[in-house]
Amino acid sequence: MNSPRFTAALIAGKLCAVFCKAFFPKRGSNLPGRFALRLDPLFLRRVKGIDPARTIFITGTNGKSTANNMVVHAFQAAGLSVCSNLEGANMKPGAASALIKHTTMSGRFTKQFLILEVDERSLSLISKDLKPGHLCVTNIQKDQVQRNGEPDYIYQKIKAVIGESDGLTLYLNNDEPRALSLGGFPGKNGRDYGLANDAGDGDWNGNGDGDGDGNGSRKCQIRTFGVAPNARASETEAVWGVTMPCPICHDALVFTHFNLAGVGAFHCPACGFHPKAEPDLLVSGVDFENLTFNVSDRTYRLAYQAAFFLYNYALCACVCAEFGVGEAALEQAFATFTNISGRMETFSYAGKTIKYMRIKQENPETLQSALDTIAEDKTEKAFVLGPAIVDDIIPHYSNTFYTFDCNFEPFMRSGIERCICFGSAIGWDTANRLRYAGVPDERIEIVDTDDDEKILAAIAACETKNVYLITWIKKYEKLKAHSA
What pTM was estimated for this model as a whole? Predict the structure, then answer.
């Protein structure tokens, strides 16, 4: 029998969901769960009928929203019923809101699978109430320094969750050192660096209990996914970048190529840490012109040209293989998948085609991916950059430190007519970074304001009709409202 507290929370959550759907649709992914958790802090663990073996969490710094929605899309294409937080509300209220929609008044979960995007900081909190049988880690990279400090803080939080879990299946990015190291590594000279597994058997598989003696039962199953070198791979990283430390022994890693910033083929000369030679799922044969890629002997459609999407496809295919989602369903899902609104969009103004590329401010990897995508367009273009004050946490602040981790050279060689830096907070700082990158002063225009009309007037004055815009989502929506 349900507790009165849980019943009251469920009723309140469902009523709030109905209210939000009618009057505040954008609040419906979070507010119902917030009400329910306020009435019953143990609401998540009281929902009945959730099978850990069919519960999948997707976490990490970058790509978790897209990967989550792609996995859900593929499962649904295979005829499976799924509960998920597709809107990206990835903390406890978002998880509760998703469950409220698919829980009966008796408190029973109604779907076959629970697939959740989970904020990397919130993973430890949510996993105390909802026990996942499967955990996907996209990557662990720099992000939100005022909240996360540096990546090792997040690394330790995820590692702790893994250490407290038994029978967990981990899906790890084979090309991203921090994420991959969560699966453990045997190391040189027989030394055991096992984390999630006991790697004492000297093999990458890790067939032990995690205590390093090589004799225990397997604690975690490890699945790895990766992307083969392709036309977008680079042999260089940012001039200003700091060498990534090895997550195993903390010496300097050496990369032989980068598929993305901080993601690619690497090895540690000190302890020998390196990717698996053959990940469980490998995306290969990438053809950006014809928008196709291969998994094993099958060719799939690539819906988006940006290279970072390849890791979302790889993770999705890896999870689908584990759950027996067939190739036909996967092919249909990849061909029909549509990314979350607001990530890459286009609008018109004053005869210009403005291509908006959303990044996570303070996150060099997403900025680098955007710059690399722009660099693939060799036609003349204008570049409009407007970082903002970060006001989602107190104290509010602004900076451009993350831009110094990015390599602007390919972007610079791709044909930039004009760079417009706008914003009253850090417009001048942004322009300064472009000067360091080698953009001539005469090609830089500073619009020292947040006024929409003045920003659009500067864009309208560009000779080229091809414009790329990077700014925060709220400013993009305001500028788009003026579209022709």
Answer: 0.89
